[in-house]
Amino acid sequence: MFAVPASSFAPDHRGRWPGAPAPPRTSNRRSTRRDPMRQAQIIRSNTFQWALTVAGVFAIFIIVLFGFIYWQTDQYLIARSDRMIARQLNVIAALPSERQPDAIDEHLRQDSRGVQYAGLFAADGRRIAGNLEQFPPELKPNDSVQSLSVVRTLPAGRETHVIRAIARRMPNGDALAIGREVDETREISHVVGQAFALGLLPAFCLCLLAGAWLSMRAQERVEEVNQRVQRIVAGDLSERLPHRDVDEPFSNLAAIVNGMLDEMETMIHALAGVGNDIAHDLRTPLTRARLALERGRTNATTLEQLQVVADKAVANIDHSLTIITALLRLAEIENSRRSAAFGNVPLQEMLREVCDIYEPIAENKNIKLRVEAGHQLNVCGDRDLLLEAVANLVDNAIKFTPEGGNVDIELLRGDGETIMRVTDTGGGISEQEREAVLRRFYRSDKVRSTPGVGLGLNLVAAIVKLHGFRLAIHSGPGGRLAIICPDRQD
Q1: If we measure between CA atoms, which residue out of 407, 408, 396, 403 comes closest to residue 451?
Q2: Alpha carbon of 78 to those of 73, 81, 118, 298: distances in Å?
Q3: How confident is the model at residue 334 (pLDDT cuts 50, 70, 90)?
Q4: Which strands form 175-180's sheet, in the order they lie side by side?
Q5: Helix 456-467 vs helix 303-334: angle between axes, to the nearest 10 degrees?
Q6: Are 326 and 345 in contact (CB under 8 A)?
Q7: What does pTM read for this prediction?
Q8: Beta carbons within 8 Å of 203's beta carbon, 6+ residues apart
Q9: What is the spatial distance between Cα 98 and Cα 64, in angstroms, rounded to a whole number?
Q10: What is the rounded distance in angstroms from the CA atom of residue 209 to the CA atom of residue 312?
């Protein structure tokens, strides 16, 4: 059997995994021919359908608006004509009977447009003056304006016109009729029709073009996203979705997805590295256990020697089990399986309990362990997990503090937050190692001789992240780490 190196299962420099198909090649050249299927997709797209709906609603609104304007204008013109002919009737009727024919003739002579109608008829129906051939039989002489059809004799012949007219019976028995042809309404109708044709149709077409353009633009962006997603699925983890620095939903969504892809790429690379670290850290104690057993089988001659060999092998196996248990613990916390057990945690009592647990260990190293928790402060969380996080910080502080040093556990109240801080007089954490110490199995060169597996701070970071808190690591001489618990905003 041939051994396969662990590095062969790690992604390459472009983020692709071994055996993954190459990402599809895309050409930057676009075909100039229109694809009928693509046109059909544009027409069936939601964007185009919405644009068509908006255009239809806009067209209906314009039609109603123009109809209302036409109706109001027509009513206004008719009412104005009615007032004019009623006023003219009153003027002529107020004149003496012998002057009325001349007044009618003068009234018609001033009509340059030929829209005025007038007639004075005797009691027997004979026309005395005016341009009406006969008194309209449907016109009632009751001073009310009516619409009627009349026949008018012109040089070109006889014509029938629809007019608005009013009539009155004179004291001497004559009948006076005054009318006017309301031709302005036809002109307004023509103007409204032209405005409707010149305004509505281009606007409707513009809405359709805008809908088609928006649909094509959305389809192109979706196609580009689809191509990039296919490259990501093929193994190119460095690929990202296109987005612009503008405040629009698509760009905001792309930015969120890219952030998620960044996190996934980091986790995948970290997973590959963790696999190598686990293999390395487990190989060492297992190799020692195997060598101890092999030497004991070969060299041991007494029961006491075999027991010593067995104790060494058990110690190395226990070290391996400690690593595996810590990894399982991290997986449990990172999967948020404990979030359902959150409750009110009194921090003062918890910190004093941690101090009681580690006080004997600190006394053995001649280290003064103190707790300063004068305030009764509470947070929402899992008490066991928070106890484990603080205990890890205290354990590290005692472990890396030389004899005769100090370790302080403090409970403080900040601006809208509660702080649990552990300080010591040890070597501290350098600025360059602030991020590295949170990685799994990381151990600085200066502490490699100290017992441990390099998972303590990683476990603390996972517990803090599960609770929505923050872990602050201060660099410089002396260790100072703090768990910052912001107040909940209900």
Answers
A1: 396
A2: 9, 5, 18, 126
A3: low
A4: 127-130, 116-121, 175-180, 157-169, 146-154
A5: 30
A6: no
A7: 0.43
A8: 58, 59, 62
A9: 52
A10: 81
Per DSSP, what are the bridge partners of residue 118?
A: 178
Tokens of 376: 């009764």
Q: Establish how many alpha carbons lie within 13 A of residue 330's alpha carbon, considering only the half-sphere containing its beta carbon.
A: 20
pLDDT digits (tens, 9 = 90+) for 35-88: 565 556 666 666 667 777 777 787 788 778 877 877 887 788 888 888 988 999
* Residue at token pair 């460095």: 238
**Cα 220–Cα 223–Cα 227 angle in degrees, nearest 5:** 140
Closest CA to 117 of 81, 141, 170, 63: 81
Q: Which of 218-222, 253-257, 411-415, 448-452 has the lowest mean pLDDT?
A: 448-452
Amino acid letter, residue 93: A
Please name the residues in contact with 465: beta carbons below 8 A apart, sequence gap of 6 or more.
334
Residue 455 tokens, joined? 């998972």
- Give the pLDDT confidence of 169-201 residue by residue, as tens digits: 988 888 999 998 876 666 776 777 777 777 777
409: amino acid identity, one letter: I
Query: What pLDDT does residue 217 have?
Result: 76
End-to-end CA distance of the chain: 61
Dihedral, CA atoms, 7, 9, 13, 16, nearest 10 degrees?
180
Q: Tell me the average pLDDT across 396-420.
A: 87
CA pair distance 278, 53, nearest whole angstrom:
61
